[in-house]
Design a protein that fits this description.
ATPase_NBD, 46% helix, ROK family protein, 254 residues, single chain, Nucleotidyltransferase, domain 5
Length: 254
Amino acid sequence: MPHTVLRGPREVARQPELDSERAIVRAVRGAGVPEHVPVQVENNVNCAALAEQRDGCARDERTFAMLQIGVGIGIGLVLDGRLFTGANGVAGEASVMPFPWHPGGVPQHEGLERHLGSAGLMQRVAAAWPRDAGPCPATAEALFRLAGATDVDGRRSSTARRMVDDHAVEVGRLAAALVSLVDPGLVVLSGGVGSNPLLLPGVRSVLDTLPWPTRVVPSPLGVSATLTGVTRLAVASAVQDLLARLADPVALPG
């Protein structure tokens, strides 16, 4: 029977996260997965990074980073050909970073995700939307669709495009922080917002200010990346388990 893939039961820094992983495992068992079937817990961005490594735009890359921007934010790191998850299994959890960092500002826990996630984006859009520009888009999807439109009222479209460009620069600053620490050589933009081509120029403009080159590309796998990565991880785990059993005659049935 194949493995069920989530994220491996590691002791993590915060008790709520550990409780969450345990709750996931309990839910999987409660859905009928028997005790003898291994359950591995993994986050969605790491799974998507594995998919890009095997089936996407990072197939020839030994080191790269996936930056997911959507409802939330997250980073998946592949270093020297291997997924890097850190000492507690939570490497790349940019969502918990405090923000803002400007002088006089009071950083708030998980403030960066609240700022860069789609809810924070749309709050800023609603606050800055000119009254004479027509109805304000209600969702990030509508904002990007309007920003890329050429057959609608020019005032609305140009306003949306300006706000998308501003958000792209914000995302670029996070990408620049990531690149300055890890130097991945390649940053793959993913997520409902991150994979939109309109975000790419602004992110590149920020990274171009760094003294070394970094390629930035949108994910070609889109929303299927996570599921593809889960499948890859499940197969790899099952193969490793089978090889371990073959190497240990005691573990073989019969």
